[in-house]
Design goal:
Number of domains: 1
Strand order of the largest sheet: 3-2-1-28
CATH superfamily: YVTN repeat-like/Quinoprotein amine dehydrogenase
Distance between the termini: 10 Å
Strand content: 35-45%
Radius of gyration: 18 Å
Oligomer: single chain
CATH architecture: 7 Propeller
Number of strands: 28
Structural class: mainly beta
Largest sheet: 4 strands, antiparallel
Length: about 350
Amino acid sequence: MPHIFAGAGASSSPRGIPTVGGLFRCDTATGAWEALSNGLPANPEVHAVLVDPADARTIYAGTNDGPYRSRDGGDTWTKLDFPEPNTMIWTIAIHPTRPNVLFAGSAPIALYRSLDGGDSWSRLPNAVSPCHCERPGFDSRVLRIAFDPNRPDDVYAALEVSGIIRSTDGGETWTDMSGPLIRLADLPHLRSNVGGRHCGHCEGMLDSHASAISPALPGTVFLGLRMGLFRSDDRGVNWYDTEIGRFSPITYCHDVIVSAHDPRTLYMCLSPAAVSDDGALFRSTDLATTWQRIDRGVDMDSTLMAVAEDARDAARVCCVTRKGQVIGTTDGGATWREFRLPAGVEDVYAVAWG
């Protein structure tokens, strides 16, 4: 029986209530959660969980003390050789054609690369924040890293809150691709600045949460933002609004992924806002041309933060809300089951099948 992993921060929730952080594993047969701690830092914050698609026993966790790895399905963990201590890792990704190459992104914004399967890491000196919307008291961060399967040295990093940057040489050099997003913010319906981050009305268009690329659409990048789902068909040179409001009354997008089993299938997390009492999981089976809501029979209790598909079984999909509500399906969305994280676990950003 597969497991579900979820990672949470350890701070105050948006409602000012102290929360419990850490890495948790759910036995989907019983629905019971277990807090994982053997080898992890004390009182960890975990905002990234990556299960190796080639070996479900190998799992990476992004913590407030850099990346950790488990070789036994999460029972024990090893701290990896990382150049900067006490670095909060928000995302980890494996290169699509060179599985020994991994990337990690942090807060404040920085990118790191491993060439030896995660044993050691180095900072990529040319991957710097464009500083579009940074402000004191908020660490802008790398929330997602996406590779183009057709051009595997094309790497995209979605930055919250600073747009998106791209490398075309495997991470050696990086270019800010946010200019067209800033220009789109001149449109009245795409203007937003809820955080006072000193970038006028364009903050919402730079509030990047997720990026995804399908092998069935060479050069096309999907970008999930506060303002919806956006798309570039020319490797990030130009962007346009996919007008997700045609399919959903809520349009704040915090995650979008491409199915590992069908390149025409994508999943997307939508909510009213970063802090809310609602969320919805959508699926497209036609390369994001149309979308349908698929979370049947479950009321989301807060903003939907992340979605994951089991690399071994396309019928297994799960997602997690900010306040720790995990729902999963093992039959492709026909039915859903709720796996509530333990009391006090909030600020949840990461979920994965293992």
